[in-house]
Design goal:
It is elongated, with a radius of gyration of 22 Å. With 118 residues, it is mainly α. Helices cover 74% and strands 0% of the residues. The protein folds into 2 domains: 53 residues, no CATH class; 50 residues, no CATH class.
Length: 118
Amino acid sequence: MQSTLVECAWSASRKKESYLKRKYESLVGRRGKKKALVAVGHKIIIAAYHVIKNLEVYQEPVLHDNNRRKQKKEMKYHLRKLKDLGIEINETEGRFFTEAKKVLEYEIDTIRTRRVSV
């Protein structure tokens, strides 16, 4: 039964924007792949138990996109990639996104004009 649950956990961990995928991703960094899969399988069997016990349809928990650490990490990654491309974006006075957007649009326009003029 455990091997079946682990197979189900594998497929659940690959489904886009699901609670079980988030659970897997949060555990895999701390526990490792195998233990994270067993934990997700445990979540599946707990959910199945409650569905059978209460005779109700499974409702996936609501996902809140408030993972600040992940957002900051992704932002640093993309800023580093832009810097590698030669686009410098400075974070100033709390207006990061509006200023960065203006600078990025200007940089993209200058890159396009360089390609056209060459």
